[in-house]
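Input record, target 12 of the design panel.
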């Protein structure tokens, strides 16, 4: 086990590398809607992420990934992923399901369409 830091790569190469990982690690102190986390979840790669509002909005601790606050918590979570053979599969399966239910392209399209229609209705009521 080890970690790899690489420069810019194509999405196909990135996904093939992610599929070889024990987990995707996100250590950001602050984050919005992290695409890398969503991609890992979609690919079935377990996620180990620092607890911040953006990450916590996507990753549900011990359901769809593991969240940590401190280096000690990170170490404990990483060890759990390596030593508990059932945990990575459980987290990946749950995460993949959530991504397909909550973050699919069709869902995004419907959400933007609903938002646009709502804005147009409000605009027509105000004119």
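The sequence produced for target 12 reads:
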């Amino acid at each position: 086990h080890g970690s790899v830091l690489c420069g810019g790569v194509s999405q196909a190469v990135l996904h093939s590398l992610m599929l070889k990982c024990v987990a995707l690690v996100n250590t950001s102190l602050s984050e919005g809607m992290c695409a890398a986390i969503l991609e890992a979840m979609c690919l079935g790669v377990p996620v180990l992420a620092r607890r911040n509002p953006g990450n916590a909005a996507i990753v549900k601790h011990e359901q769809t990934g593991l969240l940590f606050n401190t280096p000690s918590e990170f170490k404990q979570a990483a060890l759990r992923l390596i030593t508990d053979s059932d945990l990575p599969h459980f987290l990946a399966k749950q995460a993949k399901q959530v991504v397909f239910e909550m973050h699919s392209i069709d869902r995004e399209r419907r959400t933007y369409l609903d938002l646009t229609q709502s804005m147009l209705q409000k605009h027509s009521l105000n004119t």
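Residues 4 and 33 are 23 Å apart (CA to CA).
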